[in-house]
From TrEMBL:
The gene is hemN_1. Probably acts as a heme chaperone, transferring heme to an unknown acceptor. Binds one molecule of heme per monomer, possibly covalently. Binds 1 [4Fe-4S] cluster. The cluster is coordinated with 3 cysteines and an exchangeable S-adenosyl-L-methionine. It is found in: Cytoplasm. Keywords: 4Fe-4S, Chaperone, Cytoplasm, Heme, Iron, Iron-sulfur, Metal-binding, Oxidoreductase, S-adenosyl-L-methionine. Belongs to the anaerobic coproporphyrinogen-III oxidase family. HemW subfamily. This is Heme chaperone HemW. GO terms for biological process: porphyrin-containing compound biosynthetic process.
Length: 373
C-alpha cells in the first residue's frame, strides 16, 4: 500500500491554446473525449493501492479543469470523493469557464480550495500573453468565487511581462487584493520557446522588462502583499496564515506524490515517473499508461530534498532532512552553504538554514550551486 500525502490530477483540455503556454494541454472541447479521459483517469487511479488515511491533498489542475461540463465535473470529482476525504481539495478554474453552478457542484463534492488563473487584469497584458477573455469576465468570475461557500481562494498572477510597468503590476495587485484572497501565486514570466509569445520575444517584436525591472517588480509585490498580511512562504507563493497550499507544501518537503493523467509526473518508492503527453494514447492504454521512469540514487534524493526545501521560507530543517535522506545537510553541502552564506544569500536558522531575502530573488541560481558528484 502506498503511503502518500498528495495526489495530482491533470485535465489537459483547454478551449484554445494561449500564446504563452508551455503546459501540456490541447484545445479540445468534445465532451465525449472528456468522458473517455475521465474513465481512463478512474482506471489509472485503480492501478494504485493508496492508503486512504494518509492522503492529505488532491489537486486538480491542467489545462483547464473548468472546461468540463457539469456532468463531467461531477463524474471527475466523484471518482475521488468516493474513496478519499482529503484535508485540502483544490481545483483550478479558468475565469472564462467558471460558473456559479460549477462552483456549487465543486463544493458539494468536497472541493474546499479554488485556484483561479487570472494572470493579469490588464487587457494589454492578456493580449501579450495570448489569452482570450476580458477584464470584465475575470471580475465576474472572482465575484462568483467570493460568493461561493468555498472560502479558500488563490489567485494566480504573472509579472515581468513585455511592456508591463511597475504601475501596471500595482493595479493588478490592487484589484486582486480587493477580492481578499487567502493566497496569491505570483510568477515571473517564463518565456517558453516555440510558443507565439516566445517567437515574438525572439524576433524582438516584444521586449521583456529586463532583469532590473523584473527584480524591482518582485520586491515590490513581496512588500505589497506582506503589507496586506499575505506573507511569502515560498519563492512565488504568498498566503494569510493558515491559507498556505498544503499540496505544494508537501511537494516542497520532498514528499511522495502521484500524478494521474496525460503528462502527469509522480514520485514514489524512490523513482520519478512521467506519463506520456498524449491524451488519446493515455485513453487507449487504459490503466497502464507507458510511464517513463527513473530511479533516484540516495544522493539524488538528498539533492532534490535540499533544493525543494530551500524554496520555502522555512528553508532546510537539518533534522527533517536527515530523517528523510539519511544525510547530514551541513556535511553534504558544506561548500555550497559556506559560499552562499558569505555572499549573503543564505543564513543559518535554529533548525538549519534558509535563503535570505536577497537569496529569494536569485533562488534559482543559488539552487544551481547545490551540486553533488
Ligand atoms: S488556459 Fe492555461 S493550460 Fe490552457 S492553454 Fe492557456 S495557459 Fe495553457
Amino acid at each position: 500500500m502506498l503511503d502518500l500525502k498528495s495526489l495530482y490530477v491533470h485535465i489537459p483540455f483547454c478551449d484554445y491554446k494561449c500564446g504563452c503556454c508551455g503546459f501540456y494541454s490541447i484545445p479540445e472541447t468534445a465532451e465525449s473525449l472528456h468522458r473517455d479521459y475521465l474513465s481512463a483517469l478512474q482506471n489509472e487511479l485503480k492501478s494504485f493501492d493508496i492508503d486512504e488515511d494518509s492522503l492529505e491533498t488532491i489537486y486538480i489542475g491542467g489545462g483547464s479543469p473548468s472546461i468540463l461540463s457539469e456532468e463531467n465535473l461531477e463524474h471527475l470529482l466523484g471518482i475521488f470523493t468516493e474513496k478519499f476525504s482529503p484535508i485540502e481539495f483544490t481545483i483550478e478554474m479558468n475565469p472564462r469557464q467558471l460558473t456559479r453552478d460549477k462552483l456549487i457542484t465543486a463544493e458539494l463534492f468536497g472541493v474546499n480550495r479554488l485556484s483561479i488563473g487570472v494572470q493579469s487584469f490588464s487587457e494589454k497584458s492578456l493580449e501579450v500573453l495570448g489569452r482570450k477573455g476580458s477584464r470584465r469576465e475575470i471580475l465576474n468570475a472572482l465575484d462568483a468565487a467570493c460568493d461561493s461557500p468555498i472560502e479558500n481562494l488563490n489567485i494566480d498572477l504573472i509579472f515581468g511581462l513585455p511592456n508591463q510597468t511597475l504601475e501596471d503590476l500595482e493595479k493588478d495587485l490592487d484589484i486582486a487584493l480587493s477580492f481578499e484572497p487567502g493566497h496569491i501565486s505570483a510568477y515571473s514570466l517564463v518565456v517558453e520557446q516555440n510558443t507565439p509569445l516566445g517567437k515574438s520575444v525572439e524576433s524582438g517584436r516584444l521586449k521583456l522588462p529586463g532583469q532590473q525591472l523584473d527584480r524591482k517588480m518582485y520586491e515590490h509585490l513581496i512588500c505589497r502583499l506582506e503589507e496586506e498580511g499575505l506573507y511569502q512562504y515560498e519563492i512565488s507563493n504568498f498566503a494569510l496564515p493558515d491559507f498556505e497550499c498544503l499540496h505544494n507544501w508537501n511537494c516542497w518537503r520532498s514528499e511522495q506524490y502521484i500524478g494521474l493523467g496525460a503528462s502527469a509526473g509522480s514520485f514514489y518508492n524512490g523513482r520519478r515517473f512521467t506519463n506520456p503527453a498524449d491524451v488519446r494514447g493515455y485513453i487507449a492504454a487504459e490503466r497502464n499508461p507507458k510511464r517513463e521512469s527513473a530511479a533516484l540514487t540516495e544522493k539524488d534524493y538528498a539533492w532534490q530534498t535540499a533544493v525543494l526545501m530551500l524554496r520555502t521560507n522555512r528553508g532546510v530543517c537539518a533534522a527533517e532532512f536527515s530523517d528523510k535522506t539519511g544525510f547530514d545537510f551541513e556535511v553534504l553541502f558544506s561548500a555550497e552553504i559556506e559560499k552562499n552564506i558569505n555572499a549573503g544569500l543564505l543564513e543559518k536558522t535554529v533548525s538549519g538554514c534558509r535563503l535570505t531575502p536577497e537569496g529569494f530573488s536569485v533562488a534559482d541560481s543559488v539552487s544551481r550551486e547545490f551540486v553533488l558528484d
